[in-house]
Amino acid sequence: MEILQDKVSSTVNPELIKAFHLMWDGFPWPATLVRKDRVVLACNAAALKRGYQVGNRCFQASGRTTVHKQCMANEAMREQVGHHSVNYNPERNAVSDAYWLPIAGEKDIYVHTVLNITDVAKPELFKE
Predict the structure, then answer these.
(1) Domain count of the fold of the chain
(2) Residue 48 domain boundaries
(3) How many Å apart are CA 5 and CA 74, to the nearest integer?
(4) Tens digit of pLDDT per residue, the chain (128 long)?
(5) Exposed (0-12), middle (13-18) or buried (19+): which is 79, by Cβ within 10 Å?
(6) Which partner from 4, 7, 64, 95 sits 20 to 30 angstroms from 119, CA to CA?
(7) Is residue 31 domain-resident?
(8) 121 burial class (0-12, 13-18, 19+ CB within 10 angstroms)?
């Protein structure tokens, strides 16, 4: 994995990776720096604890082999503006609050973070 991580890191400005870690390492929910093709370039500590790995595609941490239906990365990249989505997952009985945040000056790189807001979500968000 170290070779893959080095290969991915070598294609990205190291200052961008450093800035990501400065901003997101203390964040309590998973946050990743992701390339447009869904390859993870950097992970905060919470993302690493949940199985995210640099060099993998972002959706692989959930065990999926394809992009999630709710993913708004394409829209965020095309419009160069952040996007947000709240979704209910009946398998986990959980509500997530997801964000795709383009990086200024980087056409194909964004931050993706997902918060579990089940404890504070309105009951009507829980659809069966």
Answers:
(1) 1
(2) 2-84+97-114
(3) 24
(4) 444 444 555 578 999 999 999 999 999 999 999 999 999 999 999 999 988 999 988 877 766 666 677 889 999 999 999 999 998 888 888 889 999 999 999 999 999 999 999 999 877 766 65
(5) exposed
(6) 64
(7) yes
(8) middle
